[in-house]
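Ops channel
N.P.: pipeline sanity check, posting one input/output pair.
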């Protein structure tokens, strides 16, 4: 999800958790906060936190950089679970009760 904002806006953690990534990926600053089984991601951000830091909801985790949206500064906010090939992405508005969860059908294995 892309959220419009001003360049250099303070980026705040959506909930309490532990910083699991704070650095550069594919040329953009990224911060990831682990909230148990869920993780929220924020980009492009110049991190003010380090891996292992514990944050509270609303704590500053960095400042917004330009570059994600072509026409104006914006924050890409993500919600994910799993790791590696098992990563699943969700609408982060679920955290605010503003989105509907759609279940994917489970197909039995062939044979």
């Amino acid at each position: 999800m892309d959220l419009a904002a001003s360049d250099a806006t303070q980026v705040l953690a959506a909930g309490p958790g532990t910083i699991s990534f704070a650095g550069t990926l594919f040329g953009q600053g990224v911060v990831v906060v682990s909230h148990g089984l869920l993780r929220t991601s924020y980009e492009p951000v110049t991190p003010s936190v380090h891996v292992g830091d514990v944050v509270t909801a609303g704590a500053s985790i960095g400042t917004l950089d330009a570059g994600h949206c072509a026409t104006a500064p914006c924050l890409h906010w993500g919600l994910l679970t799993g790791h590696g090939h098992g990563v699943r992405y969700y609408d982060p508005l679920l955290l605010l009760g503003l989105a509907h969860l759609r279940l994917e059908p489970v197909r039995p294995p062939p044979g």
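N.P.: looks fine end to end. The chain has one domain: 2-95.
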